[in-house]
C-alpha cells in the first residue's frame, strides 16, 4: 500500500517475518523513498495507541499548568521550551522568520558515558513535572519503545543501502536522543499570526532519523517535493511518519536526502484546533566520525568529515532565539 509515489507506507511486519523476497522488496521501497523524498510511513510497529494517547493527555495537563517556569530550558536542553524560544526559520539564511508558534516538553536519554563533561552536555538528568506524575512514567516507556524501533529501522535502512544490517546500529546505539512533545496552540490562543510565521518554519531535521506521531489538522505537516511544491504529508491511523535528517544525508553522500518540511500556522478555518505531536529524534554516537559514502553508493560531494556531536551542537545553536 502506498500513500503517494514518493512517500510510501511500509509494513514492518513484512520486515520482521516476511520471506527473503518480501524483505528485499521492502528494503528497495525504502531506498527509493529516501532517494525521492526522504520520507516514508511505517505501520506494523507494535507501539500501542493507548500509550501515545496517554502521553498526549498528560502533556496537555502539563501545558495548561499555571506556572511552568521551574521547568524552563533552552533549545537542546531538557524540560520546557517556552513559546518564542525556537526559530527553525533561522536555518534558511537571509531574512529571519519569526519564532515558531509552539511550545515543547523535552526529555532525553539518561546514559553515563564515563566523561562528566559529555554527560553534562548530552545526557543530563531529565526534568519531570511533579504536578503531572504520569508524564514521567509514560515518557520513559515510550522512549524505550522508540529506541528499539529506531534500531529496527536503522537495520532496514542499512539493508536498503546494501550494507551489513548492523552497520548503522553499531555506530548509533550509545547516542543521545531527544523526545519532543510539541504543542501547537489554537488560533484563539495565539491571536493573529505574523507574516512568515509557522508552527514550525521550513527546515530540515539535523540528525540521523526522526520518528513522528502526528494528529491530523488544518495546520499540519507539509513536505517540499523535489520539484519545489509543498504537499500535505499523509496522515494514516496508527502509522508513524519517518524521515532522515541532515547527518544521515551527509553520511550517505546524499544518496538519501533530508527534505525541507514545515508545520502550517493555525488556520482561521479551525480557530480552536490544538495539535500535539510526539517527535523522537535519534542520533549517531557523539564521537562517530561522519565520513560520507563515496560513489557509487553516494553521490559526488564535497562534504568534510565531522563528528556527530560537533554537527548537532552547531545546529542547536543556530535555531535558538536569544
TrEMBL record:
Locate the Fe2OG dioxygenase domain: which residues?
175-284
Q: Which InterPro entries match?
A: DIOX_N, IPNS-like_FE2OG_OXY, IPNS-like_sf, Iron_ascorbate_oxido_reductase, Oxoglu/Fe-dep_dioxygenase_dom
Q: Gene3D superfamilies given for it?
A: B-lactam Antibiotic, Isopenicillin N Synthase, Chain
Keyword check for Iron: yes
**Alphabetical list of Pfam families matching this protein:** 2OG-FeII_Oxy, DIOX_N
Q: Does the keyword Oxidoreductase apply?
A: yes
Q: In which pathway does it act?
A: Antibiotic biosynthesis
| GO biological process: one example | antibiotic biosynthetic process
* A molecular function (GO) term: 2-oxoglutarate oxygenase/decarboxylase (ethylene-forming) activity
Signal peptide start-end: none
Cite the EC number. Answer: 1.13.12.19
Q: What is stated as this protein's family in its record?
A: Belongs to the iron/ascorbate-dependent oxidoreductase family.
The record's section on PANTHER family has: 2-OXOGLUTARATE (2OG) AND FE(II)-DEPENDENT OXYGENASE SUPERFAMILY PROTEIN-RELATED
Q: Report what the protein is called.
A: 2OG-Fe(II) oxygenase
Amino acid at each position: 500500500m502506498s500513500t503517494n509515489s514518493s512517500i510510501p507506507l511500509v509494513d514492518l511486519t513484512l520486515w520482521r517475518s516476511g520471506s527473503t523476497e518480501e524483505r528485499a522488496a521492502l528494503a528497495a521501497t525504502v531506498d527509493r523513498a529516501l532517494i525521492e523524498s526522504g520520507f516514508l510511513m511505517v505501520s506494523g510497529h507494535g507501539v500501542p495507541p493507548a500509550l501515545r494517547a496517554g502521553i498526549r493527555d498528560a502533556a496537555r495537563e502539563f501545558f495548561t499548568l499555571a506556572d511552568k517556569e521551574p521547568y524552563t530550558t533552552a533549545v537542546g536542553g531538557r524540560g520546557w521550551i517556552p513559546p518564542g524560544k525556537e526559530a527553525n526559520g533561522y536555518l534558511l539564511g537571509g531574512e529571519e522568520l519569526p519564532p515558531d508558534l509552539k511550545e515543547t516538553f523535552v526529555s532525553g536519554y539518561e546514559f553515563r558515558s564515563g566523561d562528566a563533561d559529555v554527560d553534562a552536555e548530552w545526557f543530563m538528568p531529565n526534568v519531570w513535572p511533579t504536578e503531572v506524575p504520569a508524564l514521567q512514567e509514560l515518557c520513559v516507556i515510550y522512549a524505550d519503545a522508540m529506541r528499539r524501533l529506531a534500531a529496527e529501522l536503522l537495520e532496514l535502512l542499512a539493508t536498503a543501502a546494501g550494507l551489513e544490517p548492523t552497520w548503522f546500529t553499531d555506530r548509533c546505539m550509545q547516542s543521545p536522543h531527544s523526545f519532543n512533545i510539541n504543542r501547537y496552540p489554537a488560533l484563539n490562543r495565539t491571536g493573529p499570526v505574523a507574516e512568515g510565521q509557522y508552527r514550525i518554519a521550513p527546515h530540515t531535521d539535523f540528525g540521523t532519523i526522526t520518528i513522528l506521531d502526528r494528529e491530523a489538522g488544518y495546520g499540519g505537516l507539509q513536505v517540499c517535493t523535489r520539484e519545489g511544491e509543498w504537499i500535505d504529508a499523509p496522515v494514516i491511523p496508527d502509522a508513524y511518519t519517518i524521515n532522515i535528517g541532515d547527518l544521515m544525508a551527509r553520511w550517505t553522500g546524499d544518496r538519501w536526502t533530508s527534505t525541507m518540511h514545515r508545520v502550517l500556522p493555525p488556520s482561521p478555518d479551525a480557530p480552536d484546533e490544538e495539535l500535539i505531536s510526539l517527535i523522537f529524534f535519534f542520533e549517531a554516537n557523539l564521537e562517530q566520525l561522519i565520513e560520507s559514502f563515496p560513489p557509487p553508493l553516494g553521490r559526488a560531494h564535497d562534504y568534510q568529515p565531522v563528528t556527530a556531536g560537533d554537527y548537532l551542537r552547531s545546529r542547536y545553536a543556530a535555531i535558538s532565539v536569544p
